[in-house]
Amino acid sequence: MPHGFFLTFEGLDGSGKSTQLRKLEEWLEAERGEEVVITRQPGGTHIGDRIRKLLLDSKTENLAARAELGLMFSDRAQCIAEVIQPALAKGKIVLCDRYTDSTEAYQGGGRQLGSEVVLELHKAMCGGLEPDLTVMLLPDFDRSLERARRRNARKPSKKGDENRFEREDELFYRRVFDKYCEIARREPLRVVVIDGDQEIQDVHRRIVEVVRERLRERQD
């Protein structure tokens, strides 16, 4: 039975991950003729988009940290069942904007729930499905946070209010950033870190280099 390739992008908002995901999609389709499925978390399904609206809307108040954690995994379980697993079973490449590393960073680190509860829920809710490769973008912390807040302040209204997390203070985001670094140290084979403030095209070339090598290993 064919098995596809599952690649996730991680990093703070403002790190450039969405831009790099789209550039990689274009390269995979144009240069390699690969069939690519794009998804995101939270969201990516009808149910997931409703959960996303609740989680990210700045009007959502008094949401307990563990309730937030549960919603993140409910969204993820739906996306796995509806999008990710069917695509992988058909041998497709799946590019996902955020996955469990984000939950470990934002809820485990930022909300201070710790990694253990996140990883246990991952086993239970996701069947332990791990990415084949995670690209983690970690540019300068201060610049990344500034870009994220500036970008969200000028988002068009038709996309809705997704600024709830951007209202958190710098200490919250520092805990998120530190947890990302901890994950990268813990899983160096799966996670490839691209740090520093590099040009978009330079980052893209580095990602292509890594992905090309991993896909070659998949074929061997």
Task: Tell me what you see in this structure.
- With 220 residues, this protein is an alpha/beta fold.
- It has a single domain, classed as Rossmann fold (3-Layer(aba) Sandwich), CATH 3.40.50.
- It is built from eight helices and five strands, in the order βαβααβααβααβα.
- It has a five-stranded parallel β-sheet with strand order 2-3-1-4-5, sandwiched between helices.
- The longest helix is centred in the middle third of the chain and has 25 residues.
- The two termini are 16 Å apart.
**Overall CATH class:** Alpha Beta
What Rg do the Cα atoms give?
Answer: 17 Å
Measured distance between first and last alpha carbons: 16 Å
Strand/helix succession: EHEHHEHHEHHEH
Mean pLDDT: 92
Q: Major sheet: size, sense and barrel closure?
A: 5 strands, parallel
Layout of helices and strands, plus pairs?
Layout lengths: L4 E6 L6 H15 L4 E5 L5 H11 L8 H25 L3 E5 L2 H11 L4 H12 L6 E6 L2 H13 L16 H17 L4 E5 L4 H20 L1
Parallel strand pairs: 1-3, 1-4, 2-3, 4-5
Helix pairs in contact: 1-8, 2-3, 3-5, 4-5, 4-7
In short:
The protein has 220 residues and is α/β, with parallel strands linked by helices.
Give descriptors for this structure.
220 residues; alpha/beta; Rossmann fold; five-stranded parallel beta sheet; 8 helices; 5 strands
